[in-house]
Amino acid sequence: MGWRVRSAQALVIAQLATAGPVLAQPADTIRVGDVLGAPSGEPTFSTRSPFSYMLGPIYDALALVNADGSYSPLLATEWRNTDATTWVYRLRPNVKFHNGEMLDSSGIAAYLTWLNSDAGKATNVGAQVNQIGFDSARAIDPLTVEIKSKTPNPLLPKIIQSFWMPAPKAWAELGKEGFAKKPVGSGSYRVTEWGPNGTDYEAFGDSWRPARTPKLSVQKIPDRTARRSAIISGQLDIAQGMDMDDIPVVEGAGHKVDFAPRPQVATLKLISVSRDTPFKDKRVRQAANLAIDRKNFVEHIFRGRTRPANQCSLPGATGYDAGVPPIPFDPTRARQLLAEAGFTNGFETTVHAFAPSPFPGLTDVNQLVSQQLGAIGIKVALEPLSLADFLKNWNPGATAASVGFKGAIFEQHCNMVNLDSLDGIRDSSCDKRPAYYCDDAEQRLLDAAKSDTDAARREATLKQLMRLNAENSGMLFLVELVDLTGLHRRVQGFRNDNTRYNYHEITLAR
Fold this sequence. Notes:
By secondary structure, the protein is of the alpha+beta class. Helices cover 31% and strands 22% of the residues. The chain is globular, with a radius of gyration of 23 Å.
């Protein structure tokens, strides 16, 4: 068994780091502290951060979307669309899974077909397949797979290429539940001991992109102070989810903090606006946005390293509209709007937010947002949001009756790992069941963008959607998110590729 730290020991780590000598550092193991862990090891659980830090070493996708929107080939070496609804992928030859299976087109087709089944659609990844209108996949030859959509969908290749591919025979034999504890992929590392709070890996010798360091250990350590202290003491090599206040402390001890843009806009989503809640009124939503002092967040919490958000998109993403005006901080106008909407004395609501948030700065931001909303009369009870509760209410199996959130607001962000505005806003539209926020005019624009293969026209439609959603205050816009990763001084070659750590290229100086 490799080096291991369980989440229950996080405080012990902090105490050792501050009170005792630096422990011996294993030269053959990259030791990572993760905020949330991953409750499941199977690939349909999530392909997104923060779960990617535990699942990413195990699996490969067809391609990697880079931070600038370009693609790096992974399991697929090339792809092309032969007509408006058909994409053909050429697979990398001689790729082996951890159990000895070989990558081929029939395995890819079988997995995508399963995702389109009733059982598959009940998973988070399968829900994405359903959203993009996936129709079928078939093997043309051992290394060529054809993927079809029901209607033209320019987002299909961006979504399909991000899916992690499991070993197909193991997936068929173990099923989703069995695979959760015995994941098998083609990644640079294979699991030696799986646990939702900590996982040990060893380099996969037959990998098509072999790891440079023999072992990897990723452990769930929710306490940020414990992760920071463990970097300084040498008990961790990499600490995910550092905060701005950690930078001078970590760098002052001779270590590093990696800064990387993150393809997400921090927002607080509105739940079931169609119900009889104050947020059903556009003026109330606008008032809530006017109450938020984003510049203060950027200057004092993020130290100028990010920007205020004004739409559900990012510069560089398809559909981002640079013409959307910034949202002013205007509590006086916010109180006027509340009064016009009939809430002269304000009202009470609950904000559900991760505690601690896995994203830099957001724990402080969420607290300040609650205070600033209170200042205009929206009295907030800030309730901790656990990962289990978030998954229960966000997953595709949720229904209007099963949504357990008490209030009207919860922490969920515009995620654009594919750098496409449609991907970011879809979960805050009528597409989401149950819908958190649903506007008919916005939905018409979203539906048009789904199937338009004319790039220029689609871009214009998405920009119009961003403008309308911003005008409607369809959510509470906060800031553009960033990633901060603590690195012990001995870590060499680290890179954060669009929320994917390049574990296989990392080495440790002796």
